[in-house]
Specification:
The protein is an all-alpha fold and about 375 residues long. The chain folds into 2 domains: about 230 residues, Citrate Synthase, domain 1 (Orthogonal Bundle); about 100 residues, Cytochrome P450-Terp, domain 2 (Cytochrome p450-Terp, domain 2, Orthogonal Bundle), CATH 1.10.230. A 3-stranded antiparallel sheet has the order 1-2-3. Helix 4 packs parallel to helix 6 and helix 8 packs across helix 16. The radius of gyration is 22 Å and the shape is globular. The two termini are about 30 Å apart. About 45% of the residues are buried. The chain binds s-citryldethia Coenzyme A. S-citryldethia Coenzyme A (SDX) binds next to helix 15.
Length: about 375
């Protein structure tokens, strides 16, 4: 037998290290590091743009560098008119993730540097994508509601502009703080499926638009970033806190996965959850929807009692985005608006690693089947 048939399969590539990275570290014991910084030291203390800068330049910016980086992002938030037209012409029934996947790929047709794959060209391309993915999401949302898209304003920060373009109103201070935290918490997470998809694409020396398009298609899945939308559907289904136990029991009895719970790597609570739970508690307090917060806490306790698993990033993030007025079908696009900074950084790191990601497989099919010409089949 050939070697390939003798290899042992590692199902789901669980615990397989496919490459080295310096961008983020997901510690199974329940901590997360971005380029050496524990996220607990970053969330609530820095802007999202500082995290994007950290991923690309491997260090935090000083004030002058941050001001320049932020104004570069804001100046790049404008889309090619052809892409805007294309967004406006998509059927309203099309899922926003399908539009985002298409339009990121479409952006590649208008890249001002064409096919140049120099490091500088890719860094500029990364900044354009980090700036333009939120604009695609805001443009789609406004177009779906027959509303104009405000142009980016120089006197707003990048995240303030994103919020302003999405909601059409001056960015609320509290909401801006929440969006910074949400985007920092979603920015990168080791070799999660969508990041790995981007790296596989980049490992063939394909372009960054192709890598990010691969990632978007991968994040859409409900076992990954698509879970957030399903969490909201579950919370809408559970009309009262008193019904939590029966509802969760029903799902588990039917062998169904509880959306927003469990994780391939963490053996303890996802370190992002405490930040997200706190954001949701504050938002629910502000909006007098503490019954929703209490329902979430009860679900969390019930699922842990039954399955010893914890909420992942999608559980409380869904409630936070809902509280910000984001429709559930836009939750995963919002996830993309942040994770694109991680995907772009991993794409560049993979180019530097310069090795094709091509695993083997274990062939378990037949051998030596006798060929029969079609006339005799
Ligand atoms: C994200 O990888 C990342 O870092 C991703 C992410 C990121 O930041 O990029 O963190 C973002 O994608 C979070 C995950 C969002 N997905 C969901 O919320 C969907 C629900 N979760 C599950 O499908 C599951 O937990 C996964 C897919 C996230 C992880 O699955 P694994 O590692 O393949 O584990 P498994 O499905 O084999 O489950 C192991 C055990 C099983 O029990 P037994 O059959 O062995 O008795 O845990 C149980 C599972 O039944 N289990 C669950 C469960 N998750 C695991 N049971 C009920 N509900 C769940 N959600």
């Amino acid at each position: 037998m050939s070697e390939e048939t003798e290899r042992d399969v590692v199902r789901g590539l669980k615990d397989v290290a496919a490459a080295e990275t310096r961008i983020s570290y997901v510690n199974p014991s329940g901590s997360l590091y971005y380029v050496g910084y524990n996220i607990d030291d970053l969330v609530g203390r820095i802007y999202y743009a500082e995290v994007a800068y950290l991923f690309l330049y491997r260090r935090l910016p000083n004030q002058r560098e941050l001001d320049k980086f932020s104004s570069d992002l804001v100046s790049q938030m404008v889309l090619p008119s052809e892409v805007i037209e294309s967004i406006r012409s998509t059927p309203k029934t099309c899922h926003p993730m399908d539009v985002l996947r298409t339009e990121v790929s479409h952006l590649g047709e208008f890249d001002p540097e064409g096919g140049s794959q120099t490091m500088n060209a890719n860094m500029r391309r990364a900044i354009r994508l980090i700036a333009q993915v939120p604009t695609i999401v805001a443009t789609l949302y406004r177009s779906r509601n027959d509303l104009p898209v405000p142009r980016p304003k120089d006197d707003y920060t990048f995240v303030e502009n994103f919020l302003h373009m999405f909601k059409g109103t001056a960015p609320d201070r509290e909401e801006t703080k929440v969006l910074h935290r949400l985007m920092i918490l979603h920015a990168d997470h080791g070799f999660n499926a969508s990041t790995f998809a981007a790296r596989v694409t980049a490992s063939t020396n394909s372009d960054m638009y192709s890598a990010v398009t691969s990632a978007i298609g991968t994040l859409k899945g409900p076992l990954h970033g698509g879970a957030g939308e399903k969490v909201m559907e579950m919370l809408d289904d559970i009309d009262m806190e008193e019904h939590v136990e029966e509802y969760i029991q029903g799902l588990l009895d039917d062998n169904k996965k509880i959306m927003g719970f469990g994780h391939r790597v963490y053996r303890a609570e996802d370190p992002r959850t405490k930040h997200l739970r706190g954001i949701v508690e504050n938002l629910c307090h502000r909006q007098r929807t503490m019954s929703l917060y209490n329902k979430c806490v009860k679900i969390e306790k019930r699922v842990h009692d039954r399955k010893s698993i914890y909420p992942n990033v999608d559980f409380y993030a869904a409630v936070a985005m809902d509280a910000l007025g984001v429709p559930k079908e836009f939750f995963t696009p919002f996830f993309c608006c942040s994770r694109v900074s991680g995907w772009a950084a991993h794409t560049i790191e993979q180019y530097e690693d310069a090795v094709l990601l091509r695993p083997s497989s274990k062939y378990v099919g037949e051998f030596g089947r006798p060929f029969v010409p079609i006339e005799e089949r």
